[in-house]
Amino acid sequence: MQRHGGRRAWPYRARNSSTAQDQPREGGHVLIPFPLFEPDKPAWTVTAGDNLLNCLPVAGGWGGMPQFTVMSEALADDCKGLFYYQATDGTITVIAGTETDLYKLNTATSPYSWTNVSKSTGAYSVPADDVWSFTVFGDYLIAHTLGDPPQFLSLSSGTNFADLAGSPPVAKYSTVVGDFLMFGYLDGEPNAVQWSGINNAEFWTIGLRSAGKQAFPEGGQVQAIVRDGRGAIIVQRDGMQVMTFAPSSGYTFTFSNANPARGTIAPHSLVEIGPRRFPYLSEDGFFMGVEGQPIGAERVDRWFLDTINLDTLPQVEGFADPYNKIVWWKFETADGGNKLLGYDWQLDRWCYSDQDFQAAAAIATPGISWDGLDDLYATIDDVDLPFDSRVFAGGRPVFAIIDTDGKLAFMASTNKAATLETAEVALVPGHRSHVHSGFVTTDCTNYTVTVSAAAFHGGTFTSKSAVSPSSRSGRLPLRANGQLHKFKVEIPAGESWSHVIGLDVEFAKGGTA
Q: Which domain of life does this protein belong to (predicted)?
């Protein structure tokens, strides 16, 4: 047994451990860790759990999930795309799109407002199952959907979007591949990609100036285009192709089959987080990269497919939170609500949230000067964020959303209400045990703990009343008798805390189960 402050600690086994062994045989103390969010594991796997809500993975445990701070007025309609760009002078501009219009964030008002920058008011018609795609190519910001001709805005001098010249294709997706602007999922040719003339977003005559098009006879419709060195990875519904810039071959690009068996069912679920690193949702779960490395198998895949409204699988959207290194996937549950499933790509851990919103993006914050605070807050006492917050520092990466009211909000406030529950624990295998008290290992001071007990594996758990820690000692007056126990910590919104590690439980051995 390990020692933690003179008390025995629960063996914290590897993630794929299916049972807890070497547990204490008599009464005493044991440190039960709050588990990883891996609901596919059995309920009595000590290192895996299914009730860890609104908390973020941190080394050794869990940390708080910030709430979102509202910064703007509401958009005129539901948001269908959010993007930012940084001009050569460092100025940050945020763009949002609705079904009919494109808007620019005006940071000179309090709160921030939205200026219509469409080619004309109500000019667009975004299809119901589509969203705006944005790509920066040189001085142009390209915005497009499958419902209208591609639009462009000059980053240096533009005031409103306009039709992109040169008869570009109408398409769902776009990116920059070397010196070319490339579109994918073309109107009428969902299995094709098309690229511009070299260094010219307004030249689309196939066969001239290296402009061209490629349709794929296998793999299904194009779902995403991922930049890849001197080419790109074309992700399809049922496969992937690698395209390589190869002018010496007589063609602008050559193509080869990279993965004939793995693609994505949800095009907007794919999120680029590094060279050849892009998690995505496939028919049977979550995978990473061209090779299709499983990242959700026996962890969250079954839970996700049981929880989601299966009719909405193709609409799952992914967003990167670069500050916390988490990819969030928004999905609709079977009961019609919206939830978030998160994957921490640095710690290789999963998390879960009930946060809802219309759209999201990783953006850089517009800078706010001391004088600018006057535009956002009536008095200095109304400022509800630390003065060194990333919200006030221009150019800092932040996870941003358009909330359910249509307002821009940054993840940079006090913590959301959080729930953390242990697995179903047999403190003395084969025997009942009586829990007397406990301590939570955390830097939070305001929380409650509920203990539940069951007579046998698969039995019904009976919950006791929630209790708070003693203000003098931090001790929790827990009382419950059974063969199995589980412990739930609930932390209210607005509390300042950074770590919750586990629960130190005091118990006594009871009779044979």
A: Bacteria
Residue identified by tokens 């932390």 is 491
For 214-239, b/e burial (b = at least 16 CB within 10 A) is bebeebebbbbbbbbeebbbbbbbbb
Q: In sequence order, what are the residues at sequence separation of 6 or more whose Cβ sits closer than 8 angstroms to the Cβ of residue 459?
A: 484
Number of domains in the chain: 1
C-alpha to C-alpha distance for 88 and 393, rounded to whole angstroms: 18
Q: Is residue 277 included in any domain, yes or no?
A: no
* Bridge partner list, 183: 174, 194
What kind and span of H or E run contains 399? Answer: strand 397-402
CA dihedral sign, ordered 104, 325, 17, 498: negative
Contact predicate 271/318, CB 8 Å: yes
pTM, two decimal places: 0.89
CA–CA separation, 137 vs 164, rounded Å?
A: 12
CA angle 186, 191, 192 (to 5 degrees): 55
Spatial distance between the Cα atoms of 266 and 236, rounded to a whole number of angstroms: 10
Amino acid code (one letter) for 379: T
For residues 453 and 434, what is the distance between their CA atoms, to the nearest angstrom?
10
Q: Give per-residue pLDDT as tens, 75-134.
A: 999 999 999 998 878 788 999 999 999 999 999 998 999 999 999 999 999 999 999 999
The Cα 352–Cα 13 span in angstroms is: 22
346-378 b/e (C-beta count within 10 Å ≥ 16 → b): eeebbbbbebebbbbbbbbbbebeeeebeebee
Domain residues for 430? 3-65+417-512
Q: Is residue 165 part of a domain?
A: no
Which residue blocks in 207-366 are alpha helix, DSSP H?
301-307
pLDDT tens-digit map of 281-335 = 999 999 999 999 999 999 999 999 999 999 999 999 999 998 899 999 999 999 9
**Cα distance between residue 341 and residue 18, in whole Å:** 23
CATH number of the domain to which 55 belongs: 2.60.120
CA gap 214, 217 in Å, rounded: 10
CB 23 within 8 A of CB 426: yes
Greatest CA separation found in the chain? 85
Could you tell me if residue 189 is inside a domain? no
Residue 277 burial (CB count, 10 A):
14
